[in-house]
Structures are given as C-alpha cells and as structure tokens.
Amino acid sequence: MSDNSSRKKIKVKAGIESRTIHVDYLARVEGEGAMYIKTKGDKVEEVQLKIFEPPRFFEALLCGREFYDAPDITARICGICPVAYQTSSVNAMENGLQAKLPFHLKQLRRLMYCGEWIESHTLHVLMLHAPDFLGYQDVIQMAKSHADIVKRGLRLKKAGNELISLLGGREIHPINVKVGGFYHLPKKSRLVALKESLKQARDDAEHIVRWVNGFEFPALERAYECVALTHPEEYAIAEGQIASTSGLQIDVKEFENYFEEQHVPHSTALHAVIKNRGSYLVGPMARYNLNQDKLSPIVKEVVNSIGFEKRCSNPFRSIIIRALEVLYACDEALRIIDRYEWETALPSVPLEKRAAIGYGASEAPRGLLYHRYRLDDKGLIKEARIVPPTSQNQKSIEEDLQDFVSRNLSLSDEELTWKCEQTIRNYDPCISCSAHFLKLKRLYV
Amino acid sequence: MSEIIVVGIGNPARGDDAAGWAVIDKLEKRIPEEIELSKQRGDFSALMEIFASHDSVYLVDACLSDAPPGSWKRLDGLQEALKVEKKETSTHALSIPEAIALSRELDQLPKTLIIYAIAGSRFQITSGLSPAVAGKIESIARSILNEKEIQACMKKV
User: Fold this and answer.
1) Contacts of B114 (CB under 8 A, 6+ apart)
2) Directed axis angle between helix A103-122 and helix A147-168, to 10°?
3) Chain A: nearest CA to B130, how far in angstroms?
4) HSE (CB half, 13 Å, CA atoms) of B76?
5) Span A281-295, average pLDDT
6) Which chain A residues touch B42 with a CB distance below 8 Å?
7) Cα nearest neighbour of A139 on chain B
8) Which of A66, A37, A105, A53 is nearest to A418 (CA)?
C-alpha cells in the first residue's frame, strides 16, 4: 500500500474519540510538504497541508537585475515547469515595455509550452499519480503489470522534451527564450523531423486517456470557483485574460485587485484567495471547465467517446483532464508545426527601456502563474511579484481534504492516509515553486 | 547508435558533481569514435533511453558517501543492489537506482551496466572540483580505458 519508505515517519494515533494522521513527508510530490489531519468523533477538527520547504527568495533575488535576466532567473524556480516561468516573465516584461509580438513568435512560444505540458503532465499522470488509483507503491511496481503504458509514457515524455530542447536550447531550464521573442528560431526541417514522434505521442496520449478513464474514482464533488486564462481563439496556454466560473473576466493586470495572498502559520508558502470569496481552483480542471469549447476536434471526439462530463467537479478525475491536455498539446504542436513558415522571420522584436510596471500570466501545467515587475528607466527590476499555481491551490487542497476525510471516517487509518495523499496529488503540487517568495520586514529602532 | 557508451552524469556548476563530466573530458581524445561519450544531467528518461539503446553502458557519477572524498568504486549495476539516496520527497524525478529498477521491469536494460561512483565532498554552486576528487579523475578514466570490451574495441581500431 502506501509508500512509507520515502517518509521519515507516519504517526497515526487512534482512539475512540479522536485520531490524528500526520504524514511528515509527502511522497511523489515536488518539494517538501507534510499533511496533518485531526478528527474528533465524526468531525474533522483540523486539516493542514504544511509546506516547510525553505523560502527561496526569488522575488528579492530579481531586484536590481536587468529586465532581460528575468526569464533565465525565474526558470530556475522549477525544473519541471521552467517554460511556464519564462513565459509569464517575458509576458510581463513585454507588457511593461509595450512590445507587441508578431503572430509567429506567439505561436512558437505556444509550441514550446506544448512540450512542457506534454512532459510535465505525462510525468505526473503516469509516474506519480496513476499508481495511487491502482494500489501500487510506485511506478516501478506498476510497470510489472503495465509495462506497455509506462513505455508509452516514456515516449510521450521524450516527445515533449524534444520540443523544449529544439525551441529552448535544452530541455531543463531552457536558454533560448528572451524578452521580445527568442534568440534563434529553429529551421523548419528540424521541426518537421519531430512530427513522426509527435504523431506517435498523440496516439499514446489517446491510449492513456482511455486507460485512466477506466480507473475507479473516489466520490468527492466540490463546488470550486475555477480560475484560468481564457482566449477567444484558442485553448489558453501562453496568454489570455483571467476568467472564473463565477463570471470573473479581467485583464491580467487586474489580478491583484481581485486576488490576494495570505500568510498562514503552518506553511512557508502563501495561501491565495479571491478577495471576499475565499478559495479557488487553478489547473487542468479549471481550464477544462472554462475552455473546453476551444479544444481541438480530435480531443472533443475523445471527450465525447469516453462520455466525460462537461463540468468536472471531482478532483480525483483531474487525472483524466491532465491526460486530455497531453493529447491536446500533441495535436496542437502538430498543428503549429504544419503551419511553420517563419524560419527566416525575425527571432525577436526591438525593445526600449522605460520605467514601467508589467503584468504577465500563463497556464503552467499546474495552473495560472502570475508575474508582475516594476522597472526603472534603466530597465532594472525594482520589484517582483510571482504567484505560482500551488500557492493558489493550497486552500482548495485543504478543503478537499476536509471534505474527503469527513465523508470517509470509516476508512482504516492506513487507507485514509493513502487516500488523503492521493487527494493532494490530484493537484500535482509543486511545493518548490510555491515556496519561492520572500517577505522581508525590517525594524528600525 | 554505437553499442558501447560512457556516460558522465552531473552538473558542471556544482562542485564535485562535475566529476562525471570531467571524466568524459579526459576520455575525449583517447577513446575510438566507435565508443560513444555522453554528458548527462541525470534526467531519468534520457538515462533509460540510453539503457534501452546500448549493449554496454558505463556510468560515472559523483555520490554522497561515508568514504573519504575522492575514493571511488566500480559497481556492477545489474548485479549489485544500489542504495537509493535518502529521499524524503520526490523531485519529479527518479534516481539512478530507480531508473535501473524501472528499466529492469520494462526489460530494457543493457547487457553490461557498470557504474563508477566517486565520493564527493562539496556540491555548492561554482565551487569547482575539490582537490581530492580532481586528483582521482585520471585514475577513473584509466580504469574505464582498461575495461575489457573497451580494450577490445580499441584493439580492433
């Protein structure tokens, strides 16, 4: 059952009246987090997703640096979603410096982002999350009975990595993205060479959608306010406006008017809330619920053929949406490559330094990623603000746990612990990303 | 794709973690073209692909060890149970022992898998190789050059 080997310890104190489930180290999530649940009788008294990964000071680190350093520095926040950090940072800088990117550069940004969705989602769906549903300790155990699926997953991950390598210069922490575009554009022949592996990847992705759709899903329906970027012409990935299922529709620059981050004592990451409303959900489920009409015909056909709901509110079923987004990203990558005719076009647009505030967002695999920078007239960063998806989802994760535990108190401690960890992994949380911030308070006496 | 590959794993900016790459640099002009040399950063899927597509794989990597810095060991990756490093959390990646275990389940291991593990002492950014590790890079390179099948390949050329 549960993967105890990768934790320091699990404390389960059972009694007639109360019990405490405390997982000191969450396995199969990125970064350092713990879970604490206290129940009394048939009531859940306390739920905490504890993030104790040390703050990483990125926002402070950016201050005083040139505006063009932002994509390379922020890419280091995460090894699994660096394209998201680069894209949100260049979006913000280009917004502040009033640079308008031509269509071909936007398409290439989107293509590179497809690579990240493919490799990041595949890793989570197959290597980290699927074992939960099938009762395996990890992917190595799962591979004993599902070798074909794991091989498909590895092929998919490779296809995603190849896209990022070609457009980004290398697959981890790419180096080819710059404010204003790219340093170099790829030759058409090199992109066309990826088509075969992407077609195979698309087949593999469809197979995996159908496979995960066959899992058994614990019952849990939640009334989330879903928040994601939307775009009038495409399934929003690298740009768009911010929308919610409660009718919010705002420009990215208005983000901080509607959302705020709060300190909580048990977490080194901030908790984000919608002002005056509370928790909200970002990520694949939010995107699907808001933007499914923009999915490509191939993906819509698969959605229909598996009978997937129009509005998903069971967080355990997010694994199906993640798999659908892998399918979409493969299909979208092929579409962009087929239309690629820009190898002799300019790789970037000129920029003019100016004092400005720039706002940018994009859809990281785990959800909305917001950046804001204030620049001085020399192009130096004076202030940086980054709101990653995991800190936005933390409150929803805790509420999911609260809801799930209160409905499942009859489960054994071991089973409940397992299911609670699975509940957290529904979010593919990236704890390292969420603990990037610094709040420095100086007291002058 | 050649049948034999020597893979250095590491990060050149992270002190003794650069040991794997340093060994590859030492081998560059001393090994025939028939033998592939590769520098990797440890991505498990890339490593598994290398396992699946070569008959013989020689890995060089720095490790944390109780042994004195610079001491190194030649391990048979197919026979010896490798200890998974203390890992309380997944970093969205598999370790080398886990990558080997997963490749085994997928029946995608090479026929030969030798691991040269060298004990490092410092892994901070831009700290460079420690003198203890730097002093052993040549001896690891020589040991690889003396591997039977690498010798056989060199004699053929």
Assistant:
1) B56, B57, B58, B59, B74, B75, B76, B77, B147
2) 150
3) 25
4) 5
5) 98
6) none
7) B102
8) A37
Q: Which helix (H) or strand (E) holds A160?
A: helix A147-168
- Summarize the confidence of residues A61-74 as an average pLDDT: 94
Amino acid at A256: E
CA dihedral A404, A290, A168, A203 (to 10 degrees): 80
A/B interface, count of CB pairs below 8 Å? 66
**HEC profile of A226-287:** EEEEECCCCCCCCCCEEEECCCCEECHHHHHHHEEEECCCCECCCEEEECCCECCECCHHHH
Any long-range contacts for A311-316 (C-beta under 8 Å, 24+ apart)?
A312/A285, A312/A288, A313/A221, A313/A222, A313/A223, A313/A224, A314/A217, A314/A219, A314/A220, A314/A221, A314/A222, A315/A220, A315/A222, A315/A285, A315/A400, A315/A423, A315/A426, A315/A427, A316/A217, A316/A218, A316/A220, A316/A422, A316/A423, A316/A426
Q: Given this model, what pLDDT does residue A433 score?
A: 55
Residues of B with CB under 8 A from a CB of A: 41, 43, 45-46, 48-49, 87-94, 98, 101-102, 105-107
Tokens found for residue A171: 């697959």
Domain B4-156 is in which class? alpha beta
Partners of A157 on chain B (C-beta within 8 Å) are 45
In this prediction, residues A403-408 reach a mean pLDDT of 89
Cα of first residue to Cα of last residue in chain B, in angstroms, is: 17
Residue B39 · residue B21 · CB < 8 Å: yes
Residue A226 has pLDDT above 90, yes or no: yes
B89–chain A nearest CA distance, Å: 5
Report the residue from B93, B101, B106 with minimal CB separation from A151.
B106
Does residue A120 register a pLDDT over 60? yes
Closest Cα in chain A, distance from residue B80 (Å): 18
Report the C-alpha gap between A370 and A73 in whole angstroms: 15
Q: Give the chain B residue nearest A28 (alpha carbons).
A: B90
Kindly write down the DSSP assignment for every residue of A364-395, as one continuous string: ETTEEEEEEEEE-TTSBEEEEEEE-HHHHHHH
Structure ipTM: 0.86
Query: Is A387 in contact with A259 (CB distance < 8 Å)?
Result: yes
Q: Which of A29, A123, A154 lies nearest to residue B89, judging by beta carbons?
A: A29
Residue of B nearest to A52 (CA): B89
Structure token digits, residue A28? 């199969």
d(CA A269, CA A348): 35
The CA-based angle A74-A80-A82, given to 5 degrees, is 25
Give the one of A7, A120, A154 whose C-beta lies nearest to B45's C-beta.
A154
Q: Please report, for chain B, the start and end positions of each structural domain, with discontinuous segments joined by +.
A: 4-156
Contact yes or no for B106 and A8 at CB 8 A: no
Q: How high is the mean pLDDT of chain A?
A: 88
Q: Minimal CA–CA distance to A67: which of A343, A357, A345, A297?
A: A357
